[in-house]
């Protein structure tokens, strides 16, 4: 067990558009910034004065050029990195339908994938742990501790829950 001291947190959203009837999911190839050159859902930092849900709708539109009528909150993830006292709290949402046509933005290039062919080798290392829970309609809470390389996971907790907590506490954690 390693002790991790987290002094502050940043809140992010992550939206996954999952069309269950067609067994497909929309991901975006991130062209710049944090997580560049990886596929991910659409999302970003929650801005001051904005609700987390509003940020999720906004980022989906900004990054993928589409809107959705309903977002369901399905997951809460907590990422920490060795040598960094900042925690990343990611609120994961599911969209089951959308309006418009997915379009490439400055940040993301959207691409559909069959849910049986999700490109985990080109995604964040945590994704292959929790995507199966997402795809099977579960709600989940996960904590992942990474090395500085942002690839190696040295600590992991992942639980299926009935109700999602509001967020994570900063302070001392072990993993
Ligand atoms: C560590 N393991 C991780 N696994 C899966 N997803 C992760 C992640 N860590 C961050 N994410 C997501 O990556 C996006 C970053 O967003 P990011 O581009 O930094 O934000 P935003 O669009 O506000 O940035 P700009 O400042 O405009 O560039 C955001 O959806 C966030 O939820």
From TrEMBL:
Keywords: Cytoplasm, Hydrolase, Magnesium, Metal-binding, Nucleus, RNA-binding. GO terms for cellular component: cytoplasm; nucleus. It is an enzyme of class 3 (hydrolase). Signal peptide: none annotated. It holds the Pfam family NUDIX. GO terms for biological process: DNA protection. Its cofactor is Mg(2+). Its EC number is 3.6.1.56. It is found in: Cytoplasm; Nucleus. The keyword Nucleus applies. The keyword Cytoplasm applies. Oxidized purine nucleoside triphosphate hydrolase which is a prominent sanitizer of the oxidized nucleotide pool. Catalyzes the hydrolysis of 2-oxo-dATP (2-hydroxy-dATP) into 2-oxo-dAMP. Also has a significant hydrolase activity toward 2-oxo-ATP, 8-oxo-dGTP and 8-oxo-dATP. Through the hydrolysis of oxidized purine nucleoside triphosphates, prevents their incorporation into DNA and the subsequent transversions A:T to C:G and G:C to T:A. Also catalyzes the hydrolysis of methylated purine nucleoside triphosphate preventing their integration into DNA. Belongs to the Nudix hydrolase family. This is Oxidized purine nucleoside triphosphate hydrolase. It comes from Jimgerdemannia flammicorona.
């Amino acid at each position: 067990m390693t002790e991790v001291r987290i002094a502050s947190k940043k809140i992010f959203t992550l939206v996954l558009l999952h069309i269950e009837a067609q067994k497909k999911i929309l991901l975006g190839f991130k062209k710049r910034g944090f997580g560049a050159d990886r596929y991910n859902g659409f999302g970003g930092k929650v801005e001051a004065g904005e609700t987390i849900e509003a940020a999720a709708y906004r980022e989906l539109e900004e990054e993928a050029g589409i809107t959705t009528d309903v977002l369901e909150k399905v997951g809460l993830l907590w990422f920490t990195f060795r040598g960094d006292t900042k925690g990343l709290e990611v609120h994961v949402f599911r969209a089951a339908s959308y309006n418009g046509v997915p379009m490439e933005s400055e940040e993301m290039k959207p691409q559909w994938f069959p849910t049986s062919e999700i490109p985990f080798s080109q995604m964040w290392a945590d994704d292959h742990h929790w995507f199966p829970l997402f795809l099977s309609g579960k709600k989940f809470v996960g904590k992942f501790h990474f090395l500085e390389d942002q690839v190696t996971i040295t600590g992991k907790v992942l639980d299926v829950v009935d109700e999602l907590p509001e967020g994570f506490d900063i302070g001392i954690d072990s993993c």
